[in-house]
Every structure is written in C-alpha cells, then in structure tokens.
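Title: Comparing notes on inverse folding

I've been comparing how different people in this forum approach sequence design from structure. To keep things fair, I'm posting one structure and asking everyone to reply with a full sequence. Here's the target:
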C-alpha cells in the first residue's frame, strides 16, 4: 500500500509577491495563462483538459492506467466540486502546455487535483507560475486551506509544493 504524502498550504499566509516573478517570467517567454472559464467550458475544451491531464499523469509514479474520457468526465468534471475557474492553463502558441486543477471540497478546504507541465517545458518554474493563480482562486473562493496528496516518489511534485510553502508529512523533509 502506498503511504501517500499529504501536504497543506495556509492560503491566507501565502506570499503572492514572493512568487509573482514566475508568471511574469513565463509571460515574457511567450506563455499566457487563462482559466477554462475564460476560454469557455465547452466539450472540446474539456476533452483538451483531459488529454493534457492524461499526458502529464503518465509521469506520476505508479499512476497506472489513466481514466477513460467518460470516467474522467464522471469523476472530475461532472461533479459538484468542479469549477472551470479552478482550471488554470498555460498556453504557448495556442497549445496548452501546462495545467493546475483545483476543486473546492468544503467551506474550509480546497483540493489540488492535478498540476502538470508537458515534459519539454519542465524545470523553468512553470508549475510555480500556474500555482499562483490557482492559489488566488482558492483564496477568492474563501477557502483557507489547500490540500494535495502525492506519491512518496513524486519528488518533483513534492518539491514544487514545498517550495510554495506547503507543509505536512512525508517527502524529503517531514515537518
Ligand atoms: C511536478 C511538475 C508539475 C513540476 O513542473 P515544473 O514546471 O517542471 O516545476 P518547476 O520548474 O516550477 O519547479 C518547481 C520547484 O520544484 C523543484 N523541482 C522540479 N522538478 C524537480 C525534480 N525532478 N526533482 C526535484 N525538485 C524538482 C524545482 O527545483 C523548483 O524549486 P526551486 O524553485 O526551489 O528550484 C512536473 O514535473 C510534472 O508535470 N510532473 C508530472 C505530473 C505530476 O506528477 N504532477 C503532480 C501530481 S498532481
């Protein structure tokens, strides 16, 4: 059985200014950010979110076979916690190259469903750039805590969230 790493961010304490350089640098490099709500929560866009999520999820340790599109719709999109404003996309030359999906689970807690960046664009701070508007979405929705679960061998995802100030058990440095 996998001993999942549970990480949590105090959304009120998150220092936006300390991370603002990541979306700024991405924009300077020709990468734009938009939510699914901005672009339109259409059938074609839902399918594109699925494809991007599926591609990025292939690199999650022990992820196994990804949802079929029908399963993804049923479990991730056609659910009360789904909000297209919580799907942040990184776009370069009209191609979607990264995403961060957040759902609102309870009056207090939001959940980081998936953050992924296509392999050629990794290691440039793009995940941090995606998470800045994702965290703002959580704050604007009045949730104080953002929770994420990771496979213990998903070093990049754990490092990403610890870098943003998430704390919790497991990973490279248990708090
Ligand atoms: C996790 C993921 C989104 C990170 O995206 P990225 O854009 O390459 O990450 P960034 O460049 O923004 O790096 C963020 C921080 O994590 C660290 N990091 C990134 N990749 C790392 C790795 N392979 N090992 C250790 N640390 C890593 C970076 O050093 C950086 O911290 P720093 O600023 O202190 O140096 C990307 O690797 C990915 O899409 N993985 C597959 C999908 C996945 O596992 N998603 C998470 C599950 S929800």
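Reply #1:
Here's my take.
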């Amino acid at each position: 059985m996998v001993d999942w790493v549970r990480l949590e961010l105090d959304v009120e304490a998150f220092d936006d200014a300390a991370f603002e350089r990541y979306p700024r640098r991405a924009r300077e490099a020709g990468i734009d950010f938009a939510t699914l709500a901005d672009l339109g929560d259409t059938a074609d866009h839902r399918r594109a979110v699925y494809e991007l999520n599926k591609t990025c999820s292939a690199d999650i340790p022990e992820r196994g076979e990804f949802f079929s599109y029908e399963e993804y719709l049923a479990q991730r999109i056609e659910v009360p916690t789904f909000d297209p404003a919580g799907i942040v996309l990184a776009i370069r030359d009209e191609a979607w190259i990264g995403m961060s999906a957040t759902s609102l689970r309870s009056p207090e807690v939001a959940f980081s469903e998936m953050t992924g960046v296509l392999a050629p664009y990794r290691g440039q701070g793009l995940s941090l750039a995606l998470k800045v508007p994702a965290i703002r979405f959580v704050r604007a929705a009045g949730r104080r805590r953002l929770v994420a679960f990771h496979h213990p061998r998903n070093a990049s995802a754990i490092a990403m969230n610890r870098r943003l100030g998430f704390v919790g058990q497991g990973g490279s440095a248990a708090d």
